[in-house]
């Protein structure tokens, strides 16, 4: 038996596009509301360094941000070493461009690989230093925070940590540990992806065929991590026939129709941690109003950056109209029928393939395979 591939006519694709647009997008990504909160501080280490060619020592106090309406305190870092911190005015989330702080990519990489995204003990040891067994958990965290903060300042303010006695009074191993973390996080920085770059896609709709009672293969494409899959009107299978519930980028699944089903909806969700790098500025209306505890003008307060990732999802949905080929004998399962020699094989994408991610609709032309002698 020889198989021949024929493209679906353009007119059918045009009709499919009209049908999809008439129904509107199934998913429309909602933009998160900016987070606002209050700054809290805890004692940290005093670091010794240089700024603009001159000595510039500064306290690396441990900073936190408690979002309004939440009891959780998020770890933040200073990205504006020259400006004093205002602990009485609220902060709100702003744009990196608005903050006018340099080297976003390097800073995000530092935070992603620094404290608290890496446990304090692990960060110290990964840097080649040692944890003093006499340090309390709080002191270990102070060291990890100070080393990370020093690396952040290196990129945002061109501040350099001294290699000789970098921590004032750091004679119990703090000197070596902070300096090691600083070097570890400022050498060979990489790049952390931006959430706007995350996508979930599907390949193979135009080439999918019907064989052994199932349609496929369809290949998942995701740069946001594994994709959790669910289906209505069908069962999704791996190549070996196991149920396909979670697939990585480049892995494929096949569709087995439920009995009597022709319209199938496949949903995919890739969960990820939103990379660090969200900037907070004390320039919102509340902070600038006369009702604020300590009203100020824009630019008068230190800028902060969130150090912890937040969870997010990239959802996708694909709709198919599939019809198994007719046969002169029923299958044992009573579901999708197997093709026989000389029988026309129809893979009908009646509504095309609708890919909806963030409100974007894309139509992929299907292909029809016909069995001949």
UniProtKB/TrEMBL annotation:
Residues 338-373 form the Gram-positive cocci surface proteins LPxTG domain. Residues 1-28 form the signal peptide. InterPro entries: LPXTG_anchor, Thioester_dom, TQXA_dom. Pfam families: Gram_pos_anchor (PF00746), TED (PF08341). The keyword Membrane applies. The chain crosses the membrane at residues 345-366. Keywords: Cell wall, Membrane, Peptidoglycan-anchor, Secreted, Signal, Transmembrane, Transmembrane helix. NCBIfam families: LPXTG_anchor (TIGR01167), TQXA_dom (TIGR03934). This is LPXTG-motif cell wall anchor domain-containing protein/TQXA domain-containing protein. It comes from Glycomyces harbinensis.
